[in-house]
Write a structure and sequence with these properties.
This protein has 17 helices and no strands. It is mainly alpha-helical. It has a single domain (4-409), classed as Growth Hormone, Chain: A. It is globular, with a radius of gyration of 20 Å.
């Protein structure tokens, strides 16, 4: 029997690892203006640098997920942390576009192993009764890491050179792994459900070959719709992460450090609150409604879409702050139920593999979005129009989620 305190302590330890997962991957976006100024990169080249991470992250995600179902999750998580931390340090040595593309691709390879393994591990400590809350709390580390990575990179980049924050993040990540490897323990697979008597399986569930998993997955309509929705939602999210610092610098003439902080602070702080709120509401609703988690996501994306349009359209900084905060709140509510809703329709032995597939498709969309925005702006589309247009994608996501909720109830 898992001690109630330890199952939350595990979430807390993973919180810090996930913090660096996002701080390391997103810090570079805050120094894009410096790379453009000092190294002469165009917005298309910057978009390619951003896309390099996401494409490798996406393409290797199914493999990473399958590894998480075959090997101890603790080992997969910590190995990934060491690899991506070392690669983050190598970013400081880059001087040409091809260098950045290769290094960012390598970082994507290291980081892609974290989420499938960590979500599966959390779900083996937390049953459906607390799963959305646990994942929602873990999700707040994404927002904290995004804020810290953006603010640190902007501040250090202006004062000590664009490359300086990457050394700091690399060393801190390695030290964290050395500390936590003593305290994270590997649970039995499907442990949480067995302890609460929700699944009466003897022994640990066995992972299946990828071909069998894909065949089963294709027959699970709700899961397919959830992944399609994630494709769109993650595209919108990464457009904001990639281009908002540049948008604030060019449209509102903010200094780099202020733009790096402003681009992340309001959205991510609001997302923290949304993630905690969404987890509580969804855990309660899902006890009486099989599609409760998905409906929470659907309402959040429907409400959030107009605020995305407003972010690109407004010329008033205060209106922009309100719009970013409202979008962030809705995004957090959606994010808190991302994997929890998915796991409601996925067998426990397939959780890591399923998360890998979700990341594969979701981050392909994200990489496409960041590159398309860069190309569009280089060819005359305003950054304001490009950002506002992603609100239409969010409306499409809401429609897909309402459809998924209906299939879950059928």
């Amino acid at each position: 029997m898992t001690a109630p305190r330890y199952k939350w302590l595990v979430v807390g330890m993973l919180w810090f690892i996930c913090f660096f997962n996002y701080a390391d991957r997103l810090a570079i976006f805050s120094v894009f203006p410096l790379l453009q100024k000092e190294l002469g990169f165009s917005k298309t080249e910057l978009g390619l640098i951003g896309a390099a991470f996401t494409w490798v992250y996406a393409l290797t995600a199914p493999f990473a997920g399958h590894v998480g179902d075959k090997m101890p999750r603790k080992m997969v998580i910590l190995a990934g942390l060491y690899v991506w931390s070392l690669v983050t340090g190598l970013t400081a040595q880059c001087t040409r576009v091809i260098h950045f593309v290769l290094v960012r691709g390598a970082e994507g390879l290291g980081e892609t192993f974290y989420f499938p393994a960590s979500m599966a591990l959390i779900s083996d400590y937390h049953s459906p009764r607390t799963r959305s809350r646990a994942i929602g709390f873990h999700q707040t580390s994404i927002y904290a890491g995004t804020i810290a990575g953006g603010a640190l990179a902007g501040w250090m980049g202006e004062r000590y050179g664009w490359y300086s924050p990457f050394w700091v993040l690399a060393v801190a990540g390695i030290l964290l792994g050395l500390v936590l490897q003593r305290f994270i323990h590997e649970p039995q697979r499907n442990q949480a459900e067995r302890e609460e008597g929700e699944r009466a399986e003897e022994g640990e569930p066995v992972a299946v070959p990828m071909r069998q998993f894909l065949r089963e997955f294709a027959q699970t309509k709700t899961a397919v719709l959830l992944i399609v929705a994630y494709f769109g939602a993650n595209l919108v999210g990464l457009v904001f992460l990639t281009w908002m610092p540049t948008f604030l610098t060019e449209k509102f003439h903010l200094k780099l450090a202020v733009a790096g902080l402003g681009a992340t602070l309001f959205i991510q702080l609001a997302s923290m609150g949304g993630s905690l709120l969404g987890g509580v509401v969804a855990d309660k609703w899902s006890q009486t409604n099989a599609g409760g988690r998905i409906l929470v996501q659907a309402v959040a994306t429907l409400v959030g879409a107009p605020f995305i349009v407003l972010c690109g359209w407004t010329r008033d900084p205060w209106v922009l702050i309100v719009a970013m905060s409202c979008y962030g709140l809705c995004k957090g509510i959606y994010d808190s139920n991302l994997t929890a809703a998915f796991y409601d329709v996925i067998h426990p032995s397939r959780r890591s593999t399923a998360t890998g597939l979700m990341n594969f498709l979701g981050w392909l969309g994200a990489g496409l979005g960041s590159l398309v925005i860069g190309v569009a702006v280089d060819h005359g589309v305003t950054m304001s129009a490009a950002i506002s247009s992603t609100g239409l994608i969010y409306l499409g996501v809401a429609a897909i989620l309402f459809r998924a909720a209906r299939t879950r109830l059928a």
